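Let's sit down with a protein and look at its sequence and fold side by side. Please make up or recall a protein chain and show it to me in full. Label the sequence line and the structure token line clearly, so we can match residues to local backbone shapes. Go ahead whenever you are ready, and we will take it from there.
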Amino acid sequence: MAIIVKWFDEAKTICILQRDENWTWKEFDDANVQSNHMIKEVSHPVNLIVDGADRLPPGYPIRHFRQALMSKPNNLKALIIVISNPFGRTIFNAMSRLNQRQSRLLVAVQSSKEAFELVKPVAATV
């Protein structure tokens, strides 16, 4: 599978979607369903980090991104996506400010390290 979904920690406070270079929109949609299911199985807040290759496959991404954002469980505390391209990060962050739900962090960062720095304080409160 080109996108692997897994728990980062035993406490299940951080869920990871790890993308490889050849992921497809079908795999993205399937990973979204799987991560939603995993997050809904716990009652505490969960942080979701989307990491790995930020190359987009062919096709129309807006439909997939919108569905992913609209379907996230209520206990999702933060969604952090690693986007190495500065322009892509800027666009994602600008659009996320327009669609942000209260009390939910939705942000693009440059690196995995930066993503984990953002969720550590959130994870520590569980």
About this structure: The first helix runs from residue 25 to 40.
